[in-house]
Amino acid sequence: MKRVLPMLFALPLLLAWAHPAWALRCGTRLVEQGDQDFQVRERCGDPFFVDSYATFARNGTGAPIETGVETVYDAWYYNFGPQQLMVRLLFANGELVREQTLGYGFNGSGGPCNLDIITDGMSSGELYARCGAPAERRQIYGDALLRDGFHGARLLVPRIHEEWFYPARGGDRAREVLLLNGRVEDVKVVD
Predict the structure, then answer these.
(1) Considering the chain, what is the average pLDDT of its residues?
(2) Side-chain-side CA neighbours of residue 5 (13 Å)
(3) Residue 138 neighbours by CB distance under 10 Å
(4) What domain range is 146 assigned to?
(5) 5 within some domain
(6) Helix, strand, coil tally for the chain in percent (to 5)
(7) 180 within 8 A of 158, measured Cβ to Cβ
(8) Cβ atoms within 10 A of the Cβ of 126, count?
(9) Is residue 45 domain-resident?
(10) Cα dist. 34→41, 42, 90 in Å?
(11) Overall number of domains in the chain
(12) Alpha-carbon distance 33 to 19, whole Å?
């Protein structure tokens, strides 16, 4: 029992020092959490689609000194062909913070697609990859203010509503796709 206790205390320290569990390979080079956007572009080339948004945090509301910090997020989408999964890389102020794998990639530039594949929760980059550029695209900006009533902090979170319009093709009827902060929120069939 005496040997088990020190090991239990050491385990959290080892986990804290561990490297991230993911790393994207572009050719012979690795891209990992903490890399800068220019390093990723150098290793992997240009993404096929980029989506951006920002948050603004205020700390010390009601205190003598109030500070504000903006964080700019960029989501880069990479397509490595139909034999590999597409990848979404999320950068915060130019630093890679998250990697997400999507469905299998494709040849060419994407689209036109069977509009029935558009589902709630699909990312804007995946929609762009599968169905191509929309015929019409509108953005409506708003925000939500999240307050921390205990510490006097607040976070201004943008709410970017987008409407993407895909015209009727073949037997498909037109679709109006509503996105919120880069994710499909609703799909409407348009006559």
Answers:
(1) 80
(2) 2
(3) 10
(4) 22-190
(5) no
(6) 15, 50, 35
(7) no
(8) 24
(9) yes
(10) 14, 15, 11
(11) 1
(12) 9
- Distance linking the first and last C-alpha atoms of the chain: 71
- CA dist 112 → 24, 129, 168 (Å): 28, 10, 11
Q: How confident is the model at residue 77 (pLDDT cuts 50, 70, 90)?
A: very high
Low-confidence winner among 7-16, 146-155, 162-171 (lowest mean pLDDT): 7-16
pLDDT at position 62: 66
Enumerate residues 6+ apart whose C-beta is below 8 A from 102.
77, 85, 86, 87, 88, 123, 125, 126, 129
Q: What is the pLDDT of residue 164?
A: 93
In a domain, 106, yes or no: yes
Q: Are 177 and 74 in contact (CB under 8 A)?
A: no
Closest CA relative to residue 109, chosen from 122, 128, 124: 128
How many Cβ atoms from other residues are within 10 Å of residue 23's Cβ?
12
- The answer to whether residues 143 and 158 touch, using CB atoms and an 8 Å cutoff, is yes
Query: Could you tell me if residue 11 is inside a domain?
Result: no
- How far are the Cα atoms of 69, 128, 163 from residue 63, in angstroms, in the given order? 16, 45, 40
Output the six-digit token pair for 62: 């009601």
In the block, which residue shows the tokens 């205020």? Answer: 58
The tokens for 125 are 């980059």
